[in-house]
Amino acid sequence: MGVVVTFFLFILWGRLFYLQVYATAKYQTLARKNAIRIIDVKAPRGEILDRNGKKIVTNKAVYTVSLLFTGLKNADVILPKLAQILQVSEEELRLKIKNSKARPYEPIRLATDVPWEVVAKIEERRYELPGVTVSIEPARDYPYGNLLAHVVGYIQEIKDTQLKEHQAEGYKLGDMFGQTGLESFYESVLRGKNGGREIEVDAKGNPVRDLGIKTRPEQGNSLVLTIDVDLQKAAEESLKKTIAALQNRYPDARAGAVVALDVRSGEVLAMASYPTFDPAAFPKGLTQKQVDEYIRNPDRPLYNRAVSATYPPGSTFKMVTGMAALLNRVTTPSETIFDPGYYKLGNRAFKDWNPRGHGVVNFVKAIKESCNVYFWTMARRLGVEKIVEVGKQFGLGMMTGIDLPGESSGLLPTPEWKKETNTAIIEKNLKPKIDKIKSDYEQRIARAKTSEEKKRLEAERDKKIQAINRQIEIYRWETEWQQYDTLNMAIGQGYNNYTLLQLANYVAMIANGGIRYQPHLVKKVLDNRGKVIEEVKPRVLSKAKIPENILNYVRQGMREVTMPGGTAGGVFAGFPVAVAAKTGTAQVFGKDDHGLFVAYAPFENPRIAVAAIIEHGGHGGSSAGLVARDVLAAYFKVPKVNTRVFGPVE
User: Fold this and answer.
1) Other CB atoms closer than 10 Å to residue 80's CB: what's the count?
2) Count of C-beta atoms within a 10 Å radius of residue 294
3) Which of 388, 468, 541, 641 could form a disulfide with 516 if both were Cys (CB 3.0 to 4.6 A apart)?
4) Predicted confidence (pLDDT) per residue in 592-636, tens digit
5) Cα(130)–Cα(306) distance, rounded to whole angstroms?
């Protein structure tokens, strides 16, 4: 027995000798690694520059206030004092701590982009605030303020849903993440690579010592845009100025948008939406005033009306109807019709926007004066399918594929769409209502105590069912495409709904010979040393099969729009560059009309296409037309433009 015990003691002694003498260095290293944790050192995101290298979004160093794990022990004492210094509620700080999933050695971020005055107050009261730290982190900076806000978008701390989706990519709670615009679309490009700081911790994971930077952070890649800052300024200033001037006559004119494209490449030269917002407000958290201004505002300042909103195009659609008429040979450029100011369909008279009529009208004059009767006449000859075929060729009712989130497809309506939509309303909404009425009254009738009560309930039931059946009959009628639907479509009313970007691209196609480019905002991607790592080339999506001679007639009509007697002749009086355009006024039930305007220039050698809208701004020529004119003036560096509007306007 003693021999066995001695044997095991000898083995134990040998193992201890090995660990203490031969393996000491190995296990010291392992122990040291177990006692060291890595804290992220935030990397700056890549910059966003305009086509000429002007920085639209860059980075700055800001003070961040955080609370270490050790500070949590004294939270009841520390937080009221810190809340007073930061001028926030104590509840807000406690909520941030509660929602934080930081490990004991990681600081909990409580405030970002803190002014130096606040930092000084924290330092003055350092002895009262154990565990409160102030660090320097990169944050977004906007040299041009809220310029291009809807396009660049904003960043915020990553949301739980985004974290679950991107956790495998190394994201952690508290990381900044692109929420809208280019910041969102190019998140993986703009995001930097965090560095690491070594922190020594004790057995409970509490920080003991800062061992310094282990790996340095790497800035993300930068984007060079197709946008021209000066043109963008002109677009935004004109939108704001024009809307303000219109509100005396049109009080609901509070929003609008404008897009400018290079017709030779699809590059977006300017894109503005109004009202706008301050992207710098979001990373540090919105104040209640900002929540009211941006989130609860019925004018929806965060909404990019250039790509997300859809509108009836009004008379800007008439070129589609005109091209379809010439392409299908239901008319010739020289054929004339007489417009008395109305068009008869059965017993109904459709009135032209000009009640006096336009007299004798041919193709070019119909575009010049925006003659409804001419295009109604062509639509009856054509039928809806031929109009739809041409609309599709110009990309209407389909997404352009622009490099922005939230693009809408719009709607190029067809008889099939109308039937499917209204049949769905009958089957999914109205018929279930009848079934519910029957079910409800079946039980009530069964419980009726007298025959009189039973008859009364049956009469109630039948009356309600009859009301629903009347609605069903209306929708059944509406499942079929009617002749008036074709008339409405021909002049851009009815179910037509397109984005402003689609309208700009459609006009660019008229200008460039029918080439449908994919609009894009990024021209180049640079690495953090400024080297070009990707260059975006123009991408052709399709080519419209419209003969050049037909396009020339359309162009001539659009050119005459901006000449004396045209619907934008007064807007462009004295303008030194030849402009081709089309005005549009889209009816809105119960409110003032939307004003739309599309144009390209120069007429002989097109370079730029513009589309603009002022919601509820009345006539397109005297509202959106002013914005388009200002954008063209800035592009061609016209020093002074006529500010008066005279002559016919539609």
Assistant:
1) 11
2) 19
3) 541
4) 999 999 999 999 999 999 999 999 999 999 999 999 999 999 999
5) 50
Q: Which tokens go with 524?
A: 């180049």
Residue 647 Rama label (left phi>0; alpha psi -120 to 50; beta): left
Measured between alpha carbons, how far is 312 from 350 in angstroms, rounded to an integer?
Answer: 18
Q: Give the residues across from 48 on adjacent strands.
A: 57, 223
**Residue 37 pairs with which residues in a beta bridge?**
199
Closest C-alpha among 124, 125, 121, 133 to residue 86: 121
Distance CA 207, CA 224 (A): 42
What's the pLDDT at 102?
60
According to DSSP, the residues that pair with 159 across neighbouring strands are none
For the stretch 528-551, pLDDT in tens is: 999 999 999 999 999 999 999 999
Residue with more model confidence, 514 or 287: 514
Integer CA distances (angstroms), 136 to 4, 41, 112, 163, in order: 65, 10, 9, 24
Cβ neighbourhood burial of 546 (10 Å; 0-12, 13-18, 19+): buried
pLDDT reported for residue 287: 84
Is a pLDDT exceeding 50 seen at residue 508?
yes
Contacts from 162-167 at CB under 8 Å and sequence distance 24+?
Answer: none
DSSP 46-81: PPEE-TTS-EEEEEEEEEEEEE-GGGGGGHHHHHHH
- pTM of the entire predicted model: 0.87
Buried b (16+ CB within 10 A) or exposed e, 439-462: eebeeebeeeeeeeeeeebeeebe
User: Which pLDDT belongs to residue 201?
Assistant: 58
